[in-house]
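hey
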């Protein structure tokens, strides 16, 4: 079985390749839920839905989230009522949030509800939320983002930062509210301990992979089997392919390169896969104690994603010698 730690768009792209590299029923994704929010009384899980819609070939290809061919009647009606329509929920996407919210109100757990949704979308891969407990990523805006009244540094919710402010503001801190009390969702620890390989998808190291590894018990379970945990860098040639990962790394004091990613991942992953554009940083990655494999990681189409996954799964497990470079 292959277990993938997943955030949103980048992870969804990798998973599309993974279910072509191995049978989909052998794939489990442990998905970040720290982006989740309640809006209009609806429980919304953006990363779970992005992965679901992508694997169902139903995702909006322009945005990477939401459903293709959406209509926006409900949002338009809400706007006319003076409601908050900044977080765009399409009419069919609302069906997912209505179902999830109703089922959670029935007392079903997010794991069970996610299984119902993925089954309805015809997905054979298993999607697990990282936890069923509430965890919320909070972002502190750096001092130059604070209102002129000189208030202390402002902390806002992740979607307020990511969507509300279009992440177009410098940050000075990130924390995962509720993380200390969070328990791994049912099946998560077993999916880590019993996997042949664990893959860390090319998601944002701070706010997508970070929360998953921070759930008490998950980080240790990964570290205990570090030898076959393989991570794909979301940073290519010093920039993120989508979203603010590179800027967040820099603003939080990390090196915004594959070497900076290696420093964040080396405790729980033994190999970092970097794109050919970062071939000259292999020594820097290995100096951080990770093996470094160089291969195309920019998933421009599902073929590249499938080849990348085949490469990840073909990694031998020699002790010591770095993979991907002839000695
Ligand atoms: N991202 C945006 O930039 N703007 C939106 O209006 C927006 C709405 C939205 C609705 C449902 C959903 O599942 C995702 C949505 N996203 C939107 C993406 C979301 O903010 C990000 O995918 C994750 O939270 C970060 O990975």
């Amino acid at each position: 079985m292959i277990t993938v730690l997943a955030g949103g768009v980048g992870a969804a792209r990798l998973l599309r390749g993974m279910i072509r590299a191995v049978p989909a029923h052998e794939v489990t994704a442990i998905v970040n839920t720290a982006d989740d929010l309640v809006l209009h009384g609806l429980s919304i899980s953006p990363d779970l839905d992005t992965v679901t819609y992508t694997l169902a070939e139903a995702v909006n290809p322009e945005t990477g989230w939401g459903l293709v061919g959406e209509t926006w009647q409900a949002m338009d009606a809400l706007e006319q009522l003076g409601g908050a329509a900044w977080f765009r929920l399409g009419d069919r996407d609302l069906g997912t949030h209505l179902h999830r919210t109703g089922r959670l109100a029935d007392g079903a757990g997010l794991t069970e509800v996610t299984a119902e949704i993925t089954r309805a979308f015809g997905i054979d891969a298993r999607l697990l939320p990282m936890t069923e407990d509430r965890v919320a990523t909070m972002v502190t805006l750096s001092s130059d983002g604070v209102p002129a009244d000189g208030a202390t540094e402002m902390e806002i919710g992740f979607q307020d930062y990511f969507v509300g402010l279009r992440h177009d503001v410098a940050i000075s801190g990130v924390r995962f509210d509720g993380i200390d009390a969070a328990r791994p969702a049912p099946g998560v620890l077993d999916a880590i301990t019993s996997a042949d390989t664990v893959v860390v998808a090319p998601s944002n190291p701070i706010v997508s992979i970070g929360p998953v590894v921070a759930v008490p018990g998950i980080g240790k379970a990964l570290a205990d089997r570090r030898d076959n945990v393989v991570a794909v860098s979301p940073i290519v040639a010093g920039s993120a392919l989508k979203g603010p990962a590179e800027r967040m790394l820099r603003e939080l004091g990390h090196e915004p390169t594959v070497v900076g990613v290696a420093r964040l991942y080396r405790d729980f992953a033994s190999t970092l896969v970097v794109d050919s554009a970062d071939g000259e940083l292999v020594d820097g990655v290995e100096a951080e104690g990770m093996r470094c494999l160089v291969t195309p990681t920019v998933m421009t189409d599902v073929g590249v994603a499938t080849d990348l996954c085949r490469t990840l799964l073909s990694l031998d497990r020699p002790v010591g010698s770095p993979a991907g470079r002839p000695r």
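Residues 136-177 form one domain. The two ends are 31 Å apart (CA to CA).
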